[in-house]
Design brief:
Number of helices: 4
CATH superfamily: Winged helix-like DNA-binding domain superfamily/Winged helix DNA-binding domain
CATH class: Mainly Alpha
Distance between the termini: 34 Å
Number of strands: 5
Oligomer: single chain
Helix content: 40-55%
Amino acid sequence: MLHPMGNEGRRDLIPGTLELMILTTLRRSPLHGYAIGQWIREHSADLLQIEEGTLYPALQRLLREGWVTAEWGLSATNRRVRNYKITPSGRRQLERDVSSLERMIKGIFNVLRPNEL
């Protein structure tokens, strides 16, 4: 499960957000699964934690869609890891998803803060 960390409890994110964050992370450089989860956690100021049972199925979905590729390699600690890399198709999908999410967030914000328009 992908959820905010803290005392507020677990809350699911908008569908597709996990894949969007994975693609965004991989846009910087290829990474293995654990490193992807760590990067998202660190860059969300420890607000988001992705459990392995959620991360790896999402990576498999991205592989099936052709939005990422994977190769076996070695980690910095000499462990065998599967490194994921975004594809050109994945970059195009990321652009579409970011645009769609920005529109959705704007709509949500307009509902939550109607006087701040």
